[in-house]
Amino acid sequence: MSTHAHPPYEDDLFKDTTMTFGEHLAELRQCLIRALMGLVLMFVLVLAVDLPSRIIAFINRPLQGVLVDFYLKRAEQWLEGQLTEVGQLGYPAPPQESLLETIQQDRLIPELYFLDVEQTARYLARLHPEQFSAKAPPALGARDLLDPVRFCQVLWEEHEQGPQAVRKLWKLLDEEARRVVKQVATAHAEKLKPSQLDVLVGALAQLVESDKPLLEPEDYKEFLALNLQVVQLTPAQRLAQQRRMRFAQLEELLESGGRLPLPVWNRLLLAALFPEMIASGPRKQNMAPVVLWRSLEEDPRVSIKSLGPYETFMIWLKAAIVAALVLASPWVFYQLWIFVAAGLYPHERRYVYIFLPISLGLFLGGVVLCFVYVLPIVLDFLFIFNRWTGVDPDMRISDWFSFALMLPLMFGISFQLPLVMLFLERIGIFTVEAYLSQWRVAVLVILVLSMLLTPADPGSMLLMALPLIALYFGGVALCRYMPRNSNPYGEVPPE
Fold first, then answer.
1. How do residues 174-188 score in pLDDT, each as one tens digit?
2. Which SS3 state, helix, strand or coil, does residue 24 take?
3. For the residues of 131-182, what is the DSSP string, one character each?
4. How confident is the model at residue 345 (pLDDT cuts 50, 70, 90)?
5. Which of 25, 90, 135, 415 could be a cystine partner for 366, CB 3.0 to 4.6 Å?
6. Cβ contact 167:158 at 8 Å
């Protein structure tokens, strides 16, 4: 036995252990009551200043930032395909560079809409004839003939012995339009000449805009009576089936009391008689593409959703409880420390004074690292799969709040690793040499724990594992270079 070089402690090591068990329980009860009263008071103050709303807004900020970046990148990818489509429709497309600059600098996203110019012009001319006195465009244009060659072929094949409705239409056409139909059908032309198309469109537009219905119900009764039950339809049977379906829809519209303007009704009749050859209404190729811009801050897709009537209230209440616990924690810990310190030796209290600030610093460091750096990276990684699959993220507030609290908490707890290592080394379970010799196993354990404590993505796992590996070697250094305290009895035990 050798005498320790340090002088013995002057304080009596057992002077604070004279309380009875009952007195300890009474002291514990008083400490818990004072801690609970402080917690309740802090909870009331948190509600009074509406701190939960600020906390929710603060926690939502990283998610909203990632969502804004997500939709900006989506807009950049969307832009190229939409400009190509605009060019295919025959309209001049704006330069892609200028649109990208608007997206990136002004944080606006483009949305492509198609405007039916002719329908709009007709509506405005009818509603405000004094402001829009220009002649309205015809009710049927060249682009409304989806397949003019096939239209001519079908009309020519059926104009003598075909359905009654087709024969009636043939008689209503003027002589020049009949001649064009015959020329195209008999010559097996692949495309109409511009002059032929103008004649045909003009004649059909005149019929559509006439002052009486193009067809009467008895003209298409034979289509309504048709009932084909054939697995493999011939082209003629398929056309007849399409006609039956279209005219049946028009019959239901009449029976329901639907009243449409006569040009609109005539166009529907003509399109039902020649489906897939004449458009029944506005078509995309007849419209003008219009690019409208919207601010992402006002986009409902970047806001977090609640799916139940009580969900937002419960999240608000949870935020209030968490805020009260955090703000009241110094008082609560102080009350617990009063009780615990009464049963500790002076050298044990010194351990608490040294390691409690270190533990608190490590915990807060892990939380801040996760919330500031890790959360945005993890969200951006997870949203990559939304971009690949074309699925818009729709974040629920309860899921996001739980995720935003759980991940930083796991980081804060895991950052206690150096102190855990020091504790195990001091009580003799591990040595510094064991830590160094088994570092590969330790790295593997850290990777497995990081995988279990974080969401199922490699990004968040690595962002937790890499700091923990650094902290592991920091814990080894702490065990090696932090001296052991002297024995409170003034002696060193024999080796």
1. 999 999 999 999 988
2. helix
3. T--SPPPPSS-GGGBS-HHHHHHHHHHHTTTS-HHHHHHHHHS-HHHHHHHH
4. low
5. 415
6. yes
